[in-house]
Amino acid sequence: MIDVERLAKLYGELPAVRDLSFHLGAGQILGLVGPNGAGKTTTLSCLTGVLRPTSGTIHIAGHDLLTQPVAAKQALAFIPDEPALFPYLNIEEHLRFIGRLYGVADAPERIPPLLAELELAEKHRALPGELSRGMKQKLALGMGLLHDPRALILDEPLTGLDPASIRRTKRTIVARAEAGTAVILSSHLLSLVEELCTHILVLQKGRRVAFGTPAEIVADRPQLAGRGLEEVFLALTAQEEEGESTPP
Length: 248
Ligand code: ATP
Fold this sequence. Notes:
The structure is a single chain. The chain is an alpha/beta fold. The chain has a domain of 154 residues: P-loop containing nucleotide triphosphate hydrolases (Rossmann fold, 3-Layer(aba) Sandwich). 37% of the residues lie in helices and 24% in strands. Helix 3 crosses helix 4. Bound molecules: adenosine-5'-triphosphate (ATP). Adenosine-5'-triphosphate binds next to strand 2 and helix 1.
């Protein structure tokens, strides 16, 4: 569903992402993790068509993001950690607008249950300025889900959410994956990644340090067997800092 082949992105001379390849299938949830500056945001920006890669290819649901950008983006939803909302559109108007943009014919029928799922029904006439940070985050999620994307990409999806909303958002993400959506979530919350993700991609200085299911990552590195993701993450990124080679 999401195919990345030899992706590279340079900012001037700085290689923010280098030679990154991975494949994510329908129903899989990938946790994108890495230290500050590892290249996660740059990778997400390339995957969502916000940034043009320096080289490499990206396919979303079989569509080349560079040569078939409309079809690729039609299959995609990106939920940024700082959602950009329209100050003069209320919650329901945001969703109706997205429905028209993506040509969702049954948007009027889809919007009420989506608002109920996100617990925004009571606020459907509220403007962004009247919403809390968590409510804005939930609206952004609703805007991303309305057209039933086949690939869902989320940047720090739980920022600003209260405990009940965290639980509901996690359920929403898992339910979408169970329905066949490929999900990528970038987060520093390793407990979230450990709980939800079927696959993990560890980036360090723009390079892929590890990719696979948690079992595959540990199978390549017997010394990490039985350790939690936090310890595995720290061991992988520390090794790289010290310049030791780690198999991909
Ligand atoms: P964090 O966890 O801190 O958000 P990240 O993994 O998302 O970090 P990126 O934001 O992708 O990392 O940054 C990767 C590298 O690219 C860093 O060295 C950063 O300084 C650099 N970088 C990011 N954006 C730009 C830009 N617009 N111009 C120049 N360099 C940039």
